[in-house]
Design goal:
Helix content is 32%, strand content 23%. It has 198 residues and is α+β, with helices and mostly antiparallel strands. Strand 2 and strand 3 form a beta hairpin.
């Protein structure tokens, strides 16, 4: 797609392929063409939720935690990294309270945040010297990692592979590896739209 876009200026799929409901495919095409009335379809099908910003963040965090606890691979996007960090902090607090993130030893990561065993963090640098859980695969900016242990050498992590095609469940590399550059990581419960596209 990128090669075509570079040559042709832009590429647009003729028909949407990631939707199961016909109304959603049609509304997506209309919205892409700038038809704001397509939003009415999304609203009628319960896809648009509104609230004051703080309340909306609480609702998003609660929905994320519920899906996360069900084992699903969840992507929560926010407009900027300040909101991502706040959403991630709220989610981490809930997961810690529920016993899914260790409330003991922690490490300091970007912007003074803390991360512990069980937390998801997003890598903010490339390191091709680290084999990131699979032979020949280096650590890349944007990789999401689950902390397995905190050691004097760094954090032991497994890299998120994405959802299981059959169940939608989170999958991680079988092999854990040591990440020493974790200080630049952010909590990865909420990410920017740019990171989600990666």
């Amino acid at each position: 797609m990128r090669l075509l876009a570079g040559r042709l200026g832009f590429v647009q799929l003729a028909e949407p392929v990631r939707f199961t409901a016909a109304w959603e495919r049609d509304a997506s095409l209309r919205l892409r063409q700038g038809d704001a009335t397509a939003l009415d379809d999304y609203d009628q099908h319960g896809r648009i939720h509104g609230a004051p910003p703080d309340e909306a963040m609480d609702q998003a965090a609660k929905a994320y935690v519920a899906s996360y606890l069900a084992g699903r691979d969840v992507i929560l996007t926010a407009a900027d990294w300040a909101r991502c960090r706040e959403l991630s902090r709220r989610i981490r607090d809930d997961l810690t309270h529920l016993g899914h993130v260790d409330d003991g030893a922690s490490v300091r990561i970007a912007e003074g945040a803390e991360a512990s065993v069980g937390d998801l963090v997003i890598c903010r640098h490339n390191d091709h010297q680290i084999e990131a859980g699979e032979p020949g695969r280096g650590l890349a900016n944007g990789d999401i990692l689950r902390i397995e242990a905190i050691t004097p050498a760094g954090i032991q992590v497994r890299r998120l592979l994405g959802p299981d095609p059959a169940t939608g469940a989170r999958r991680f590399t079988e092999r854990a590896f040591t990440c020493t550059g974790y200080q630049t990581c952010d909590l990865a419960y909420a990410v920017s739209g740019h990171s989600a596209q990666g």
